Amino acid sequence: MEIKTFEDLIDWTRQLHDHLAKCLQDAAEKHSNERASALMDYVASHETRLANAVVEFEKQADPNVLQTRLYDYQKHTPFTPGVACDPRLTTMSFDDIAREVFAFHDEVMELYKTLIGKAEIEGAKTLLEDLLALEQHEAMQLSSQIGRMADL
Length: 152
Description:
Elements: H1 6-30, H2 34-60, H3 63-66, H4 94-118, H5 122-151
Helix pairs in contact: 1-2, 2-4, 2-5, 4-5
């Protein structure tokens, strides 16, 4: 997927969350460790909800902002829909899975922070700040739930 506009960026984010959800769901069914499998099931459902929330952002965003060109994105590797899931997921430990999930979210949040710093249009900056706030809130919620699961 080529990222040219803010609409493309939002769609890319949704696709990332959808892809992670599907990969985790598939791996959960194949994982031999019940605790790791439960974590992947939980995170998969969380990622699906997050992808749906991103869709709502797109629906509510100013159409002019969505069509604004995004020039600074070229430094980032675009996500290709249909990319294969990481086969390591079926053998990772609970802690390794949690680290991978948080690294994924950190990467998305870092991208938004970088783009916020470069945004020249107030509407685009606001949209990115709202998306960043959503990602941060969801990451905190995920962290809290994973922490509870780790305590069990």
